[in-house]
Amino acid sequence: MAVFGLVSAVAGFVKVRYLIDKAIIDNMVFRAHYRVTSAILFACCIIVTANNLIGDPINCVSDGGVQPHVLNTYCWITYTFTLPRNSAKPVGTHVAHPGLGGDYGEKRFHSYYQWVPFMLFFQGVLFYVPHWMWKQWEEGKVRMISEGMRGAMVETKQERQAKTDRLVQYIIETLHLHNSYAAGYFFCEALNFVNVVGNIFFVDTFLGGAFLTYGTDVVKFSNLNQEQRSDPMVEVFPRVTKCTFHKFGASGSIQKFDALCVLALNILNEKIYIFLWFWFIILAAITGLALLYSMAVVLLPSTRETILRKRFKFGTPTIVSGLIRKTQVGDFLLLHLLGQNMNIMAFNEMLEELCRRLQFGSSSGASPTSVPSAPSTLEMSPMYPEIEKYAKDTEI
């Protein structure tokens, strides 16, 4: 029960948060990295360290001469090995277990099992780092400027209009000043992609070059005839291995003890890593697509126009096109994040007011430069409190 209590604590990474309480500062793909993937890896770390699920992680037997707990400890902290040439031989007639047999020929050593919990924890931290970096870069900007306007609004029209006016004033005052903000976001998005691809090769190195094709090998194995099968999960994560222990005899000669070790922990490891293989591949694919989408947003104004037109229900194509021409990538990202935090009516009212201030489609023909200057941001301080106020209340 203690294990499930720890796992349930990790579930806090993926719990649903109410939109009115938390500001959304990224997209679903971004959240799949630091919430879902980190939670999966931390949960797996807890599972593989829970001895009460499988008993002792290793149990070794020998012909005697070495106490069992000494042999178990030695083989756990050093390594065990299998013989690849015996992996495909029939069990029961040629070999006792896959990969076992006479102690000669090529040996495949296995010592990774000591490091699996540390690896899983370290990977969980790696998947959280880009989000942490983006939070430091973002500094609670979206939370501050959308305060009181997130979620379902039940205020009067006058109160809503006052908040909309102040938000529009802030956007106009800071127009074209958010490009570094956008650069930080897109950098962290790219870092997510580098991170997931790097983790695939990192695990492959950790498992001795067996992870890149691990998933495809398992799929092929399931489609083979029973007589032709050689389980790739058993080859990568053997359940029974060999271990050699040396000690001095009574007369001072070196004695060799050949031990057979049962690695019960590998029954969990093989399932964890086959799941991680498929998850990393899927995550890398959708992250790559999200990165291409972000590149299109940065490089193609038409993409930004299409996205904004879908959200700006009351705006004509001419007005939306004019708004895209007057804004830069950083301004668009800020508007896009505001659109994720505000309900559709409040967001459209804000965009209408912004376009009116910038005089898109105005019959007077006045230029945007004739718009009265917005109040100083110092006057807006009652509406936009200090960032430190939310330092302990930001989402994970």
Automatic annotation (TrEMBL):
Keywords: Cell junction, Cell membrane, Gap junction, Ion channel, Ion transport, Membrane, Transmembrane, Transmembrane helix, Transport
MF terms in GO: gap junction channel activity
Subcellular localization: Cell junction, Gap junction; Cell membrane
InterPro entries: Innexin
Keyword flag Transport: yes
Pfam family, one: Innexin
Keyword Ion transport: yes
Residues passing through the membrane, by range: 32-54, 112-134, 193-214, 272-300
Topology of the protein relative to the lipid bilayer: Multi-pass membrane protein
Coiled coil: none
Protein name: Innexin
Organism for this UniProt entry: Dinoponera quadriceps (South American ant)
